From TrEMBL:
Keywords: DNA-binding, Transcription, Transcription regulation. SMART domains: HTH_ARAC (SM00342). It comes from the Bacteria. This is Transcriptional regulator, AraC-family.
Amino acid sequence: MTMTQQEPIQAGPLPRDLLHALRDGGYDVSGLAPAPESDTDSDPSDLRPAMPAAGPQQACHVLCAVYRATGDPTIGLWLGSRMQTDLLGLAGLTAMAGPSLGTALRRIARYQKLLAGDRIELRRQGDEAWVCIRPSDPEAPDTRPRIDMELCSLLAFGRQFTRKPLHPLRVSLRIGQPDWHLRYTEAFDCPVRFGEPEDAIVFGRRDLALRLAARVRSGPAGAGAGHAAREARPASASLDDVRAALQALAGDRALSLAAVARHLDISERTLQRRLMAAGTSFRTLCEEARRELAGGYLAGGAMSLGEIAFRLGFDDANSFFRAFRRWTGMTPGDYRRAAAPPPA
């Protein structure tokens, strides 16, 4: 597809892959202006960094700018099919570490829930797995290209990291069939139904069980290193080992004793005995690990509450806000200001 640049595109800091795609399409991206910050934090203290990081919201800012500049109704398909993990930001990096495509999509959906914008919903219907996009403003002029980009980028992510062709069963779209309907079939490489109740990619349930390439690389190819690491661990992990494991796994929403035991390559019973001998509990150590990580993230000053909540396994920024105040007696905003270096 050949595109003609019509006017300089004004947007914020760009995900690298999106920047490259625009350049390849002939767009002038040399004079980019900062995009507006998004209201993602529920903390009454303004904890957002001065410039939002590249990620899903910034990609949407860019898409809106491109759509206004070109008026091309298929621009979302064009950009989404060229996106990689940068478009998904922190969620993409976390998703890559998952064991399967289904786990990766659930992590991306949880991250999107923390942002002010469109939502991703996963559900199963018989042998079908639906990945639905719930737009924040269904009637906005740029909603259609934005949803197209989001659906295409999720499919591109799945194809890249499963290293499989990954053909959906079909794609369901709310819009009526447009004149450019063949572009949808080309982009998704599957049947596309128009005039449906929701916007969704429909996979087979088995597709969600596909292993991600990042995990495959750490499997057979890296089995020797993993085996050596397990052999190097003591038969009964120390309390410091447990704390380190909890910090490494803190982003898991359902962090469990079993998950930590697997991480340390010991039995749950052995881990439970170790905690009892140390006079502590799994829950206490979990809260200590998350509190320590939260303090470091806040002192660093670069993350929003939503990002911190995601990294620590909370459902939303409000839940993290309440937990942090319970842990420290301070709001995250007060803590961040107290930790900030004095002005020069």
